[in-house]
Amino acid sequence: MSRAAAGAWRLMSFETLGSTSDHCRACAEAGEPDGLAVLAGQQTGGRGSHGRAWASPAGNLYCSVLMRPKGAAREGGLWSLLAGVAVAEAVAALLPDPVRLSLKWPNDLLLDGCKLAGILVDSSPDGAGGLAWLVIGIGVNLAHAPDVPGRRTACLAPFGPPPAPEAMARAILARLDAWRAIQAAEGFAPVRAAFLARAPRLGTRMAVRIGDTETAGNFAGLGEDGSLLLEAGARVRAFAAGEVRLLAGA
Amino acid sequence: MTLPFDAEAVRALATILADTGLSEIEIEGKEGRIRVVRTLHAAPAAVTTVALPAAGPAIAAAAAPPPPEAADESAHPGAVLSPMVGIAYLSPEPGAATFVTPGQTVTAGQTLLLIEAMKTFNQIKAPKAGTVTRILVAAGAPVEYGQPLVILD
């Protein structure tokens, strides 16, 4: 394990971990202050959403950060979207044609519609309605696009030598700092606007699945709480959770 | 363009609905109209009604099939209520043991379950030490703000 600094962040780097988020979460529960970033060269137990594994070969980024922001416990989801915006900006700076990147609610980063990065957040309440800590786990496919059955994946290798994971992490941490300051000063509205600028156009056909129920409709933006708005029939419905799928024929 | 959406107002109305046992409330002002509908004996899903300008299309709430007893348990003194809308997870990952089981004693601050919203997994902790007598939500079920999740005695 090695330690370094990146701005105000404390970087803790490992060759191999089970999961950077598990390690970061254990540090949080042991009282580690805001500003820790845990990196691993590879993960043996990387987690994706919905119980899927996150393929974690050497050469891609696996990074989890610990923050202790002020705010209500139920606002943890806003940080999930904020992290998506920060990662999208850090990656966009490396691409000749950043419009090929898009954000899929709540925070998947897609390149030409194929998954390039994923984010999962863990949060804990402080017992008085506030947040005690947030751990934001970030995986970015830099050198390798893992072969995942039923999923299209992408990586940055086709654009030239991919960035080193630590360099990518530093770029992401800088954008997280920037967006954290913006959200502290102006609230969620600028984050939402930045997200929408990289999201599918309003009116795009999509479907949201919760359990066995899928609802199809037209993308109608984001709620003030970060929820996905979908116009279905004559109704606009707000989804706080669910798996989004873009539908053909938008 | 973004839709005006007063989440706090919707939450407040939803709370009034739950408290009064009414099935529907609609308010209208120059900003638009908000209508919140509750299916009796049905807990709302991880889906809420959104207010639109009065000239916009009609609005209705969505409700999902519910844990039947949930509506009556929120007044229970040992009820742990959901602080948010989302999806309940009873174990740290699929296939793993649940955080708690009925009959188990827990300490204050022990994690009882997770509620996921926007890929953020929020720990729901025991507000006090006690015994878990009932778990009122199923794994993967949508939960609403204020919905009772667990009874601690």
Describe the structure.
The complex is a heterodimer of chains A (250) and B (153). Chain A contains four helices and 13 strands. Chain A is an alpha+beta fold. Chain A has two domains: 197 residues, Bira Bifunctional Protein, Domain 2 (BirA Bifunctional Protein, domain 2, 2-Layer Sandwich), CATH 3.30.930; 42 residues, SH3 type barrels (Roll), CATH 2.30.30. In chain A, the strands form two sheets. Chain A has an eight-stranded mixed beta sheet with strand order 1-2-3-4-8-7-6-5, sandwiched between helices. In chain A, helix 2 packs across helix 3. Chain A is globular and about 55 Å long. The termini of chain A are far apart. Chain B is mainly beta and 153 residues long. Chain B is built from one helix and eleven strands, in the order αβββββββββββ. In chain B, the strands form three sheets. Chain B has a four-stranded antiparallel beta sheet with strand order 4-11-9-6, with no helix packed on it. A four-stranded antiparallel beta sheet of chain B has the order 8-7-5-10, with no helix packed on it. Chain B has a two-stranded antiparallel ribbon with strand order 1-2. In chain B, a hairpin with a 2-residue loop joins strand 7 and strand 8. Classes of the chains: A alpha+beta (250), B mainly beta (153). Chains A and B meet through helix 2, strand 7, strand 10 and strand 12 of A and strand 3 and strand 8 of B.
* CATH-defined fold name of the largest domain in chain B: OB fold (Dihydrolipoamide Acetyltransferase, E2P)
H-E order of chain A: EEHEEHEEEEHHEEEEE
What's the overall average pLDDT of chain B, rounded?
75
The poorly predicted ranges of chain A are: none
Radius of gyration of chain B: 17 Å
Order of helices and strands of chain B: HEEEEEEEEEEE
Identify the CATH class of the largest domain in chain A: Alpha Beta
Query: Residue ranges of chain B: pLDDT <50 for 5 or more in a row?
Result: 39-44, 51-66
**Can you tell me the CATH superfamily of the largest domain in chain B?**
RNA polymerase II/Efflux pump adaptor protein, barrel-sandwich hybrid domain
* Count of extended strands of chain A: 13
Distance between the termini of chain A: 48 Å
What's the helix count of chain B?
1
**Coarse shape of chain B:** globular
- Beta content of chain B comes to 25-35%
Oligomer: heterodimer
